[in-house]
């Protein structure tokens, strides 16, 4: 019986990749906090995870190499964030406090996803090789 990594890890692999992408977006927001005209962006994690689940179940697939790839992409889940603060006149929509909080929370969630995947891999190694 073959081991299916999709069954073993579920959406945790995709979730980790999405959290990595969100880290990049939040870091860009923080880095551009003083850039005139910069618009803060973020990832709609729920939509991205739903699309990852659709890709994993194989509801959309490319039946011929000459067909366009129609699978959902994370590019469509990246949105501009609505500004919570009043415009300071430079057109920048980054709220540095909100970005830092979101970055910290995302980092903790990313770390917990990695710990979960590590425990799953350890369990698979034990089952396959009888190693401790």
In short:
By secondary structure, the protein is mainly alpha-helical. The chain has helices at 5-9, 12-31, 45-57, 96-129; strands at residues 41-43, 78-80. The chain contains four helices and two strands; from the N terminus they run H-H-E-H-E-H.
Would you give an account of this structure?
The chain has helices at residues 5-9, 12-31, 45-57, 96-129, and strands spanning 41-43, 78-80. It has a two-stranded antiparallel ribbon with strand order 1-2. The protein has 132 residues and is mainly alpha-helical. It has 4 helices and 2 strands; from the N terminus they run ααβαβα. The radius of gyration is 19 Å and the shape is elongated. It has one domain. It is 55% helix and 5% strand.
Mean pLDDT: 79
Number of helices: 4
**Amino- and carboxy-terminal Cα gap:** 23 Å
Largest sheet: 2 strands, antiparallel
Order of helices and strands: HHEHEH
Beta-strand fraction estimate:
under 5%
Helical fraction: 40-55%
What class, by secondary structure content? mainly alpha
Please list the strands of the largest sheet in the order they lie side by side. 1-2
The radius of gyration is 19 Å
Number of strands: 2
> What is the general shape?
elongated
Report low-confidence residues grouped into runs of 5 or more.
Answer: none
Return the domain count. Answer: 1
Organism: Rheinheimera tilapiae
Pfam family, one: Flg_bb_rod
Subcellular location: Bacterial flagellum basal body
Function: Structural component of flagellum, the bacterial motility apparatus. Part of the rod structure of flagellar basal body.
């Amino acid at each position: 019986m073959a081991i299916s990594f999709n069954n073993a890890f579920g959406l945790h692999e995709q979730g980790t990749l999405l959290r990595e992408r969100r880290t990049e977006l939040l870091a860009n927001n923080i880095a551009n906090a003083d850039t005139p005209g910069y618009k803060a962006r973020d990832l709609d994690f729920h939509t991205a995870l739903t699309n990852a689940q659709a890709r994993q179940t194989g509801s959309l697939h490319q039946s011929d190499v000459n067909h366009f790839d129609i699978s959902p992409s994370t590019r469509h889940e990246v949105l501009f964030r609505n500004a919570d603060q009043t415009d300071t006149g430079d057109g920048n929509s980054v709220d540095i406090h909100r970005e830092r909080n979101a970055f910290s929370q995302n980092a903790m969630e990313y770390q917990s996803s990695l710990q979960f995947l590590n425990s799953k891999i350890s369990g698979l190694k034990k089952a396959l090789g009888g190693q401790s």
